[in-house]
Model the fold of this input.
Amino acid sequence: MSVDADRPSTPRALRRLLPFVRPALPRLLAGMAAGLIAGLVALAIPQVLQVLVDSALQQGDASAVLPATLVIVGLGVLEAAAILVRRWLVLTPNTKVEASMRNALYEHLQELPVAFHDRWPSGQLLSRAVHDLNLIRRWLAFGLVLLVVNGVTVVVGAALLLAIDPLLGGVFLVSALPIWIVAMRFEKRYSRAARRSQDQAGDLATAVEESVHGIRVLKAFGRGPHALKKFERQAEELRGTEMEKARAIAFIWRWLTLIPDATLAVCLVIGVALAAQGQVTAGSLVAFFATATVLRFPLESIGFLLSFTLDARNATDRFFEVIDEPVLIGDPASPATIEKPAGRLEFRDVHFRYPDAPDGAPDLLDGIDLVLEPGETMALVGLTGSGKSTLTALPTRLYEVTGGSVLLDGVDVRDLRLGELRRHIAMAFEDATLFSDTVRENVLLGSRDGSDETMREALAVAQAQFVDDLPDGVDTVIGEEGLSLSGGQRQRLALARAVAAKPTVLVLDDPLSALDVETEELVEAALRRVLSSTTALVVAHRPSTVMLADRVAVLEEGRITAVGRHSDLLAENEHYRFVISSLDDEDTRDEPRDGDGPLDGPEDGQPRGDEDPRIADERTEVRA
Ligand SMILES: Nc1ncnc2c1ncn2[C@@H]1O[C@H](COP(=O)(O)OP(=O)(O)O)[C@@H](O)[C@H]1O
Ligand SMILES: [Mg+2]
Done:
């Protein structure tokens, strides 16, 4: 995301917009033509003026006054009309360009793997989707069109000046040359700051997003002032960059006003001297200065158009940085299909490491071998950070294995279309994510039939009867991310969503952690009914969840070190005993736990190494 030395030229960078602009191109070109007509008409007026002045004033012939005046009025009206047509032509098509680019960006964001979203802050994506695309649209409508129109106007105008009087015209052109030098220096100064400011604006958006998202935590910990300070610092940095840009603009603006004025002054002195000697007519002099005046706006606009174009270039770069991100996890070229899924899930020598893992460190998952037979419920147990959540993300290809393979009914999951794969395997996560939509939409998100019956059944399994007490029942719109619900309620809806998908394989990453013990038991009983026909991989947070499973797999240092029944493992496996004793064994406590506050969430399951081993043993005995 940095400005590097060997980046492509601005025109080449902007040329990448062409595929998106193409549908709007005819109107855009027509708009440019209208703009050119307006510019050329403006230049024609002084030429008529010349005839008028020379014939009426110098030769005392008044007969030309009326027709010439009418022609000038007519040209003025034509110019105004052409400008109107230009605006009308370019405005609407570009809103379509903006919309199609935005859709392309959104679609790509949906396809990009989770690993991409781990790396990219949401504010950077947000600012690209909103601010940058808006800027590109405005540039296409005004910047690009004016760049062409004004450029041509200046060239034609300069030729006219030379034609009116070669000497005066030559003086004008030579004294206007410094504009080039100023423009070049400006480009250098401005583009450095411009890119930085767009990136900083994205960072700022991320900060806002994060603090709004985490507003409860910030408030509860009294960190509001701290967040504010951080925000202020970022805003101050952005302000500094904006000031740098403003100074660069002030610099070019100053010269772009000064140089044409000074040029005119020089021309005026020479012109008057020439006229006094009778070397130019009064009409030519009037025409010359009238033409030079027409060129003032196009010349002055160079600064604005340059900065606008550089901004648009950066916006384009930022847009394509996302679009160019390869979709590494996609559909295979020749997909396989599973006609009648049985639900045998196999991990075969699976390796996985996160891209940012330090060199030399062993793989997080270092050769996982595990088979879940159809209909079997397998609990996955391991210390916090051992990679349980990572392992559960592999069957649905939220992350791609870095070695080995995951097989569903003997078919490598990479050989299935993502759509099919994710129909067969459904997931529920510990941090339940809900969308600001109705309960119904949230629960039926992955359901194929989308029927009321499916929803009711799933809600019943998840013990989510509370939805009937919501103001509009299942049609209640729950707040953004479901924040209007308690942690336990959110988890139950997320679980219902996974159940409603009626998958062949259900992967549950600790989805019951925020439930109170009684509710959890009810959910488990209901799940046992559902799971009897479904293969399930369940990350266990409490011993009671482990009890639900047919077998338990122990994840230790990147490998499955033991698989067996809970009671056997308790008896034989020391690491298992240690992990079990460190689990959040709420149900041996007396006080019920509601988990119904945002800060009353699950404990982090951190192994409590300092715990008295005898107590832990007592607990496990109770379990056994
Ligand atoms: N998106 C990620 N990017 C990089 N590292 C990660 C990511 N998610 C988890 N990790 C790291 O991988 C390890 C295992 O994490 P996780 O699978 O969540 O463990 P568990 O679910 O067993 O607690 C941890 O050390 C964690 O820091
Ligand atoms: Mg986890």
